[in-house]
Amino acid sequence: MENSHKEEGRKQSDGRRVSSIRAEARSVVFRGALVGALFLLLVGGVLGELNRGWRGAFVGSLSGAFLGAVLGGLVGTRLSPQKVHQRVSLYLDLERESGCYVPGEPIEGYLHFEMGIPLKIKGCKVYLLCQGRWTYDQDSSEDSQGPSFVQETAEYYLQEIELLPAGKFRRGAFSYPFSLSLPEDALPTHHGYACSLRWMLYATLALPKGDPLETHREVFVEALPPDLLPSPKGYRSTVSSELGQLTLFLPRVIVAEGETLEGQVSISPFANFAAEEMRVLLLRIENVPKGAGQTFYISRWDADTGSFHGERFPGGEGSTFVWLEDEEVLCEECRFAIAEPEYFSFQLRIPTQWRPTVATGEGRVVWKVAAVITRGGQSVLRAFHEVIVHTSTAEIAHILAPKSLHSPPQD
Questions:
Q1: How distant, in Å, are the alpha carbons of 34, 42, 102 from that of 62?
Q2: Which residue, among 360, 193, 151, 371, has the nearest Cα to 284 in the 3D structure?
């Protein structure tokens, strides 16, 4: 199954912006040519009259009008918004090179200008914006060609400051400091596909005519670990069937991006049975409550085009997207004997992608570890446990975890 999120709205907006700049440029050039033609037409006519009479006035008017149109057009070209956009640049520079912040911290930096021409402005502003993007499936028919996705945005925070009032710039380079503050409850940066949260800095320079000059850059807000003490006994999830009891054990459930999560799986058979394999999976699950009640298991996603490959199954609340982030096969062609428990240790790597655990009213992202035993291509035993992924410095919770993973702690 493949689907591509179209960007027609953005392309149309960009097209209208370019058309507006070009139309404004043509208008300025035309006005310059007209004013120049009229002015030099009069001058040429008067001078021609003085020198050669009415014939001189006629020739002088035509020559003056032509020369005025050319000179006026050139001046208009130099003053057009297109020319301004080409000869003036601005960019944002942060005091903190990494661009990473925690909620409640100030964001300080400089807005730099490079002016190739003298310029009059109507003002300059700097914005801090947090915006979310949420994608869901609106197609519930089984015989359709494929899912039809809708993408919505939500604004969570906006702060603006007036950096400069209206005034004039001479040629040269200029820098102006700015400072904005992150709220204490700032949502973290999240670079997911169905669920995305981004913090952006914008600077706009308003011009007397035409579109404003604009620059922007992303800042990163870290997801802090929850203020929870680790459990000395670790964390377990147990499921049972007629075949046996499967237990997934994790010494900790709060983990930073880039860390390795260790754990153990144990099986206590109630009967003799064979299985194709036993494996553990690290899953990232993005859920948007809107949608047609579909779950998508993604095998490959192209972030540049928005196209993906995967499988779709009915079920779940809204639209759910499941990614396999890491896995480890514990055994293949396994044989288990009644009353003979077995234990398997594993390690899973949390990728560094700015995709922490997060939740808003529009969507949420959770991480889960799954232990799965399969027979005949079908899972017969599955145990899940949620883990909390953050993007700040690695926790020391593993120091307080049980010293041995030989067997899960007993009650």
A1: 13, 10, 69
A2: 193
Render 96-160 in DSSP notation, one character per residue. STT-EE-TT-EEEEEEEEEESS-EEESEEEEEEEEEEEEEEE----TTSSS--EEEEEEEEEEEE
What is the pLDDT at residue 35?
Answer: 46
List Cβ neighbours of 225 (8 Å cut-off, separation of 6 or more): 254, 256, 388, 390, 392, 395
**How many whole angstroms separate alpha carbon 238 and alpha carbon 249?**
9
Return the amino acid letter for 15. G
Nearest to 128 by CA among 70, 181, 192: 181
Q: Report CA-CA distances (Å) from 279 to 154, 244, 331, 386.
A: 38, 16, 7, 17
Going by C-alpha positions, the residue among 242, 244, 239, 256 that lies closest to residue 382 is: 239
Only one residue has tokens 């075949």, namely 243
Place of tokens 């394999």: 277
Residue 8: φ, ψ to 5° = -65, -40
Distance CA 80, CA 88 (A): 12
Q: C-alpha 23: how far from its chain's center? A: 32
CA dihedral (69, 71, 75, 78) positive or negative? positive
Q: What is the pLDDT of residues 116-141, one digit of tens each?
A: 888 888 999 999 999 999 988 876 55
Better-predicted residue by pLDDT, 386 or 79 = 386
Lowest-confidence region among 41-45, 101-105, 376-380: 41-45
Q: In angstroms, rounded to a whole number, what is the distance separating the alpha carbons of residues 266 and 237?
A: 11
Cβ–Cβ under 8 Å, residues 149 and 5? yes
